């Protein structure tokens, strides 16, 4: 999938399932819209829901405006009922993930919007099928990755592992979205943020390190 210079698609992933990806995706959409861009958000695979995407609803609460494409589930083209990794959720529901449907929905959004933010399911190494990991989806479609992280104990390890995976596959890191909502330890959080900033500056120079505030 190719985008012209004005169009862009960005894959939003996180260091773990509870990194706050949906919140960060909605926040980033607001920042880009404030710069005059037409922005759509998409949940490419939603698990733990039935007929609706809770993550898309979070996006819309933050942006304040539903999209026309929400109503026919273009922004959430694959929904599975069980709250598990996509490979297992699909197996439980007795159907396969339809990647053609996901790509078709993404093409439609890309035709109508300047930026499409594609929120992933869990972290980069979450399995989509028995052979395919989440990271393979943006890799195969040449999407840059915005990585959502935070200042909890263990986040440095999980962040660096995710960044190593991105680098080893030759992918582009769009940005780091540091979710300040999890800054609950006055000692660990500031040190974690400082360490991550320094690491990104050394290994991914020029990459924006964005603080996602608690609203």
Summarize the structure.
With 215 residues, this protein is α/β, with parallel strands linked by helices. The longest helix has 16 residues.
Largest sheet: 6 strands, parallel
In round numbers, the mean pLDDT is 96
**Mass-distribution shape:** globular
Helical proportion, percent range:
25-40%
Could you say which structural class the secondary elements and strand pairing correspond to? alpha/beta
Q: Oligomeric form of this entry?
A: single chain
Treating each run of at least 4 consecutive H or I residues as one helix, how many helices? 7
String of helices and strands: EHEEHEHHEHEHEHE
The stretches of 5 or more residues where confidence is low (pLDDT under 50) are none
Instruction: Quote the distance from N terminus to C terminus.
Output: 35 Å
What is the β-strand count?
8
Beta-strand percent range: 15-25%
Please give the order of strands in the largest beta sheet.
Answer: 2-5-1-6-7-8
Question: Over all CA atoms, what is the radius of gyration?
Answer: 16 Å
Notes on the protein architecture:
With about 220 residues, this protein is an alpha/beta fold. Helix content is about 40%, strand content about 20%. The chain has a six-stranded parallel β-sheet, with helices on both faces. Strand 3, helix 2 and strand 4 form a beta-alpha-beta unit. The longest helix is centred in the C-terminal third of the chain and has 16 residues. The radius of gyration is 16 Å and the shape is globular.
